[in-house]
Amino acid sequence: MKKLLFEIGTEELPANYMPNILKDLKALALKKLQDARVPFADVTVLGTPRRLAVLVSGVQETQADSTEEYKGPAVNIAFKDGEPTKAAQGFARGKGVDVKDLVVKDNYIYAVKHIQGRATAELLPHVLQEILTNIPFPNHMRWADFDFRFLRPIHWLVALFGREIVPVSITDIQSDRYTMGHRFLSNKKIEIPVADDYEKILEENFVIADQDKRREMIRQQITELAREEGGEIEIAADLLEEVNYLVEYPTPLCGKFEEKYLALPEAAIITPMRDHQRYFPVRGKDGKLLNKFIAVRNGGKAFLENVTHGNERVLRARLSDAEFFFNEDRKQKLEAYEEKIKTVVFQEGLGNMYDKSQRLEKLVEMIHFGQQSRLPLADLKRAAKLSKCDLVTGMVTEFTELQGVMGREYARLDGEKADVCEGIFEQYLPRFAGDILPKTEIGRILSIADKVDNIVATFSRGKAPTGSQDPFALRRQALGIINILLDSQKHMDMAKVVGASILLLKVPMEEVKELATQIIEFIRLRFRNLLLEQKIRYDVIDAVLADERNNDLYDLYLRAQALNEYVAGDKAADMIQAATRVNNLSSKAETVLPVNESLFKVEAEKALYAVVRKLDTDMIPLTVRCDYAGALNILSELNAPVNKFFDDVMVMDKDEDVKNNRLSLLCLVKDMVNCVGDLSKLVM
């Protein structure tokens, strides 16, 4: 067994792409090795700003022998009077076997070929070439006059199987055993004698190739340095991940800035520090921000003081800008910016941000009315009125990441109510996957209204997401609405909210119905995907979503959870079988009439109707309080009377009145057994 190394040396790769690239690279390497039937133990992928590497351990030097079986014509066609026909001879010739070696099985003839495994070294050039040319990237580029495209220009290739070089080439680059060390600390060609020594040799040349090891080094270094400086480091996972792919050899440094800047709102300090400069904030033991930051240098400790001073100078300029914009913004109240947002276009043909805030005021009022919320309506409308005002402040114009954040801060300084201030910030939540969700009632309603307005407006312009294209992030916003509703356990009819938003946008009446249908289906599809991610069975989802009139997503979620648990129990099989029989026969009812007990002729009819009436009384309070597990639990009482009904009763009686009465009874049963979802959709 040997180790396989394949390193692709490049110009600096975009840090934010790296986690997904490495994930895709590993999946691709596994697939190509398995397709080529190369026996191996494990695949590891490594990445730094200048390289992507695949390490495959336990690679066997020879493929395992294999057997391939090909199905041919039927025996009665292949042989006549015990002799092979032309059909059998042609099949054998085509498969490269002797006709006497054909095998008879299941009344067909088969050609069985035993293939001897090839040397792994013969297979690897093709495998590595396939990996190199098929890595999926978000975008590609060409360089020089080459037709080949890659994420960044390639400068070297290392391909070793043990000690042997595996021949791979692209553009004018030929694979070899020479890599490059750190760009500044060891900028020279470095020989890799054997694949096993790859990481060790790189580390000797100031490159930590393993991203997991490098990440932990950074975490430990910055944590220790912060404590030496008398504080605690504030580590955002996304920032740590980005910094990890900006350096090959991390060294932390601690810089300082003037204490006067601590008078600024925290967000105005942290955003330039973290989002613009990739610095980590430092807090004191009391949790308050210190006038210090920690950065990570791609290099060693030489001249670290100079590097620190340079970083301090850059941050000082940023904070000085923030101080200026903050002071200018505070010369008037947040509400005073309302007139200026008329200059900010919302979407082409759909007015400006002032128009949008006016729609939000009306939409949150409609949601508030539909929710019968105890929340003061005046506070909700106040948050909607101020929601977009910070977009034209100097601070947000300079630091766009602070939209909502500065709105909250300025509203607080103006003396607005706490929930109003928080709602202004929470309208944008969640901003990305895994982000926090709104916690205030104002924030939840305003966030849902804002996202619905965005979705409806974009759909009304014919800009719905297609394929992988979603330039307005509508899928993320739809998922945000769903997560807010589920997290807050809020019942809301999304069809009514979408309809209200369509009316506020003054969509032509002839387009309203089709537009509403498209948007509801779009949201339901996101909801379906979320349920699948939560391991809800696909047939359970089909059963719950069968009722297209129900667009209360939290209610549908509760139904799916209860039904998913129910089908895993021992009561489900009999109930589903009975429900399927009821659904099939009740569909023959042309008109559903009130059940007439005087038309019952068989005891089984009476018994079934009696159980239905009893369960109806028991089930109403359960479904009203959304106790769908309880409702499903008592449905088992229907099993015996339903089965008895089908055993003893001829539903399609010659007497039309009797027949229709029995079908009406089955329609009652159908509504009852499908009180949580359409059980006929379930697969047992």
From TrEMBL:
InterPro entries: DALR_anticod-bd, Gly-tRNA-synth_bsu, Gly-tRNA-synth_heterodimer. The keyword DNA-binding does not apply. Keywords: Aminoacyl-tRNA synthetase, ATP-binding, Cytoplasm, Ligase, Nucleotide-binding, Protein biosynthesis. Its main location: cytoplasm. It catalyses: tRNA(Gly) + glycine + ATP = glycyl-tRNA(Gly) + AMP + diphosphate. It is an enzyme of class 6 (ligase). It is found in: Cytoplasm. Transmembrane segments: none annotated. Its EC number is 6.1.1.14. GO terms for molecular function: arginine-tRNA ligase activity; ATP binding; glycine-tRNA ligase activity. Residues 577-673 form the DALR anticodon binding domain. It comes from the Bacteria. GO terms for biological process: arginyl-tRNA aminoacylation; glycyl-tRNA aminoacylation. GO terms for cellular component: cytosol. Tetramer of two alpha and two beta subunits. HAMAP family: Gly_tRNA_synth_beta. Belongs to the class-II aminoacyl-tRNA synthetase family. This is Glycine--tRNA ligase beta subunit. It comes from Succiniclasticum ruminis.
